[in-house]
Amino acid sequence: MLAKRIIPCLDVKDGRVVKGVNFVNLRDAGDPVELAALYDREGADELVFLDISASVEGRATMVEVVRQTAGEIAIPFTVGGGISTPEDMKRILRAGADKIGINTAAVNNPQLILEGARRFGAQCIVVAMDAKYNEAWGEWEVYTHGGRKPTGIRALAWAKEAEKLGAGEILLTSMDADGTKDGFDLKLTAAVSDLLTIPVIASGGAGKMEHFYDVFTEGKADAGLAATIFHYKEIAIHDLKADLKQKGVEIR
């Protein structure tokens, strides 16, 4: 069994880290390069940067943020947001990112997963998936465009398809749990984890240390990702890791 990973997530807009609840009501949470360096020192296993600036200016800002961050940290980091071609991937990887996160672009063009995996290796391709429970289906539906657009695609089928096309990991965000601090969506995470052989990063809902224990045991996730609780110093990463180790979870 792979050792579990703790991954802070930085949503970056116009060169600043922001955080919201259920994908809205954004507030400033600091400088991305400074936060990344802090998390590296505090024992984070990896980082995820999500560029939520949709403009061309946002892209240029993000490349610079990636370049600066790569010079400050030793741990791997994934960058996602607005990456829609292999050339976009190449630009971000060249700037110093270790992995690329793709979401909307992958749904719109699944071949992008295949092309990315062929050119840069499956280990570089993280397919991010925003999923929300659909009462009518009794299953989860994939949303795109930062959680704003329902696709009519079933989440479990899409996760399987992404793996088949060459994704190295799935970054799974529960829109129902995002920002609530009530715990990860264990049913969704376990359903996806049971289906796949590639690692699943659980995202959305972390509020307490025990939520990570739950998502690693009951949810069967390979990594736990969070933002608010780390940005606002509600939980320290080294304390979280000590707590998990004490409970018998093998951690990086």
Describe the structure.
This protein has 252 residues and is an alpha/beta fold. The chain has one domain: Aldolase class I (TIM Barrel, Alpha-Beta Barrel). It is built from ten helices and twelve strands. The chain has helices at residues 32-42, 56-70, 86-95, 104-108, 111-120, 155-165, 186-195, 209-217, 228-231, 237-246, and strands at 5-13, 16-21, 24-30, 47-51, 77-80, 99-102, 125-134, 139-144, 149-154, 169-174, 200-203, 223-226. An eight-stranded parallel β-barrel has the order 1-4-5-6-7-10-11-12, surrounded by seven helices. A hairpin with a 2-residue loop joins strand 1 (5-13) and strand 2 (16-21). It is globular, with a radius of gyration of 17 Å. 45% of the residues are buried. The model has no long low-confidence stretch (mean pLDDT 93). It catalyses: 5-[(5-phospho-1-deoxy-D-ribulos-1-ylimino)methylamino]-1-(5-phospho-beta-D-ribosyl)imidazole-4-carboxamide + L-glutamine = D-erythro-1-(imidazol-4-yl)glycerol 3-phosphate + 5-amino-1-(5-phospho-beta-D-ribosyl)imidazole-4-carboxamide + L-glutamate + H(+). Heterodimer of HisH and HisF. This is Imidazole glycerol phosphate synthase subunit HisF. Pathway: Amino-acid biosynthesis; L-histidine biosynthesis; L-histidine from 5-phospho-alpha-D-ribose 1-diphosphate: step 5/9. Pfam families: His_biosynth.
